[in-house]
Structures are given as structure tokens and as C-alpha cells.
Amino acid sequence: MMNGQCLAAEQSNKDLVNPFVHHLELTTTYEKIKAGILTVVVLPVRLLVIICLLVLAWLLACLGLVGLSERDLQERPLAPWRRKVRDLVACLGRWTYYAGGMRYSVRGSQAPRHEAPILVIAPHSTFFDAGICYVAGFPSIIVRRESGLHPFMGKLINFTQP
Asked: What are the transmembrane regions (predicted)?
């Protein structure tokens, strides 16, 4: 259009930042070599740390579930020692996210249970949604039944008493 209206609209669209797109511009040879070497070195180390932390969390969840039936999980709260193990599993989960390069920034504090009995995490489209459960200290989660039947992740899910 005339009077620059169309140009202004196009310019404002270019100024908007898309949080789902990241353009990495490696301009110098040094940056390219550094990115290549660090990818080859750091990626396997991060994967190894993540796998070790997940296996340790799974083992602790299995230990915490020993002797509990599905009915016990639904009807009674966890014993004090099992709650301490659950807190340790939550800590390992936070470390797993940290090892993967995901950082959480918690601002403020969580409301007491009597003021806000429900914590809603939405829209369930990123890995950060699951990480909030670790940060919040494993509140009871609502999850489909099939997820709790998974041989590996099911133990971690069931240990949160969904």
C-alpha cells in the first residue's frame, strides 16, 4: 500500500522473535572448529551423565516401590523414608535436566496447599513440562494408565503416586 503501511507491517513482522527457531551463525573458522570439537567431546559426556542419573533414579524408585502394591500407592501416603527417597529422585531428575543443558529459573515461591491445591502444567508440548514435576518436588500427577506400565519410566511415574 501507499504511505509505507505495508512496509511498516513487513518490518514489524521481521522484528518479532520466534522462540522456537534458533539461527546459529558460525562466521569464523575458529568458531566452526570449536563447535565441531565441543560437539564431539561434550555430547557423549552429557549423554553418559544423563544415562547414569536416569538409571540411578530408576534404581531408587524401584527401591522405594519394594513391598508396595498398586492399592497401597493409591490409598496411603508414602512412609517417611520413602518420601526422602522420592525427594532424592526429584533431585536426580533436576540434575538430569541440568546435564542436558536445560536450566530452570524459579521466581517466587509455590503457594501453600490450602491456598492452591492444584498445580497445572500446560500445554504439554515440551520437555520442560516434565521437569516442573522435579522442581515442584513430585506433586501427584495425572497421567494415562499406559504410561505407568512402561518398564523403565513406569517405575518413576508410579513412585510419584499418580
From this structure: 47-68
- Do residues 26 and 35 touch, judged by C-beta distance below 8 A? yes
Contacts 24+ apart (CB under 8 A), 32-41: none
Q: What are φ and ψ of residue 85, in 5° steps?
A: -65, -40
Flag whether 105 is in a domain.
yes
Asked if 88 and 60 touch (Cβ cutoff 8 Å), the reply is yes
Cβ atoms 103, 128 nearer than 8 A: no
Structural domain boundaries enclosing 62: 27-158
Cα distance between residue 32 and residue 141, in whole Å: 43
Which pLDDT tens digit goes with each residue over 109-149?
A: 777 777 877 666 666 666 666 666 666 666 666 655 655 56
pLDDT (0 to 100) of residue 12: 56
User: How far apart (Å, rounded) are the C-alpha atoms in residues 146 and 11?
Assistant: 48
Closest of 151, 148, 131 to residue 74, by C-alpha: 148
Lowest mean pLDDT among 31-35, 74-78, 150-154: 150-154
